[in-house]
From TrEMBL:
<dbReference type="InterPro" id="IPR005888">
    <property type="entry name" value="dTDP_Gluc_deHydtase"/>
</dbReference>
<keyword id="KW-0520">NAD</keyword>
<dbReference type="GO" id="GO:0009225">
    <property type="term" value="P:nucleotide-sugar metabolic process"/>
</dbReference>
<dbReference type="InterPro" id="IPR036291">
    <property type="entry name" value="NAD(P)-bd_dom_sf"/>
</dbReference>
<dbReference type="Pfam" id="PF16363">
    <property type="entry name" value="GDP_Man_Dehyd"/>
</dbReference>
<dbReference type="InterPro" id="IPR016040">
    <property type="entry name" value="NAD(P)-bd_dom"/>
</dbReference>
<feature type="domain" description="NAD(P)-binding">
    <location>
        <begin position="5"/>
        <end position="333"/>
    </location>
</feature>
<dbReference type="GO" id="GO:0008460">
    <property type="term" value="F:dTDP-glucose 4,6-dehydratase activity"/>
</dbReference>
<protein>
    <recommendedName>
        <fullName>dTDP-glucose 4,6-dehydratase</fullName>
        <ecNumber>4.2.1.46</ecNumber>
    </recommendedName>
</protein>
<comment type="similarity">
    <text>Belongs to the NAD(P)-dependent epimerase/dehydratase family. dTDP-glucose dehydratase subfamily.</text>
</comment>
<keyword id="KW-0456">Lyase</keyword>
């Protein structure tokens, strides 16, 4: 039995991981530490009665030390991060504080409790990072492997790169048993509606414009969040300490293809379920019109990386990892979840101004 501390566990990926872990490892104890910013939502953990949610900041090292000691934590899964690139461009300070200083706070606490006073008790510090630390790829460049030089291009990706280096340093300098996973773009349940997929999905339902940056041909590798959770599970269970593993979805698509899939899947849902027209009367699909009519092109954002792609050869070979669903399958499941959980996302729209 393991005792986990999941940082950022009330956020999008973190909450999905907590649901996944509770389902597949019911004997383990899980404590969530989350400062509950705009992206952290206690409702994301509804139904998980065995999970303790502690509202607190990862920068509060004393709090982290207390939790590690009192709850005999042996595994930290670190999701807590500021992650929206647009927000990092307009307000980079929060990204440095949370992603760099916060990660170092956790590492210091883990070193003290597990190595200095814990005499090297079995442990794992797993750090969840992003493919954006590798920079941008040209159309014919090979996909990101773990050996790719770091070339972050936004304050967000630079802050995550710094945190990756700190995690590596604590392994090589102090012997802390760490692992890092760099993932591609996630989508799925509980995603805050500022990211492309939930934003465009909800805009289709409400008849709002679909703002496409630049020419819409920026390419991303899309990973369903549950496949990501499965990959993290494999890293924690069989990944080698000190190693980095890239976790991808194997679905490299330009933004326009993603948007077309969103539009066509929404349109099909309205045909298959006529009652959706009553629930969402402003949707073009409610009037028999294509959701694609909402597409509009806007000025590209600053420093917009052209292409990301993940080479997951190492994770497949060492961990036995492989994504379990295509983007077509995964988005259909995602749309079904958002349609079945309207109360969840409406409460978010009521409490926050959602901007892209």
């Amino acid at each position: 039995m393991a005792n986990l501390l999941v940082t950022g566990g009330a956020g999008f990926i973190g909450a999905n991981f907590v649901h996944y872990w509770a389902k597949h490892h019911p004997a383990d104890t899980v404590t969530v530490l989350d400062v509950l910013t705009y992206a952290g939502n206690p409702a994301n953990l509804d139904g998980l009665n065995s999970v303790d949610l502690i509202e607190g900041d990862i920068c509060d090292t004393a709090l982290v030390e207390k939790l590690l000691g009192e709850r005999s934590i042996d595994t930290i899964v670190h999701f807590a991060a500021e992650s929206h690139v647009d927000r990092s461009i307009t307000g980079p300070d929060a990204f440095v504080t949370t992603n760099v200083v916060g990660t170092h706070s956790l590492l210091k606490a883990a070193r003290k409790l597990w190595l200095d006073t814990g005499t090297g008790k079995p442990h794992r510090f797993h750090h969840v990072s992003t493919d954006e630390v590798y920079g941008s790829l040209g159309p014919d460049d090979p996909a990101f492997a773990e050996t790719k030089q770091y070339e972050p291009n936004s304050p967000y990706s630079a802050s995550k790169a710094a945190s990756d280096h700190l995690v590596r340093a604590y392994h090589h300098t102090y012997g802390l048993e760490v692992s890092t996973s760099n993932c591609s773009n996630n989508y799925g349940p509980y995603q805050f509606p500022e990211k492309l997929i939930p934003l465009f999905l909800l805009n289709c339902l409400h008849g709002r414009n679909l703002p496409i940056y630049g020419d819409g041909m920026n390419v991303r590798d899309w990973l369903h969040v549950e496949d990501h959770c499965y990959g993290i599970e494999k890293v924690i269970e069989v990944g080698r300490p000190g190693e980095t593993y890239n976790i991808g979805g194997g679905q490299e698509l330009p933004n326009l293809a993603v948007i077309d899939e969103i539009c066509s899947t929404v349109d099909r849902a309205f045909v298959e379920t006529p009652s959706l027209a009553e629930r969402f009367p402003d949707a073009p699909a409610a009037k028999g019109q294509p959701s694609a009519s909402l597409k509009t092109y806007v000025t590209d954002r600053k420093g917009h990386d052209r292409r990301y792609a993940i080479d997951e050869t190492k994770a497949r070979g060492e961990l036995g990892y492989a994504p379990r669903r295509t983007f077509h399958e995964g988005f259909a499941q995602t749309l079904a979840w958002y349609l079945a959980n309207e109360g969840w996302w409406r409460s978010l729209l009521e409490r926050a101004a959602i901007t892209r």
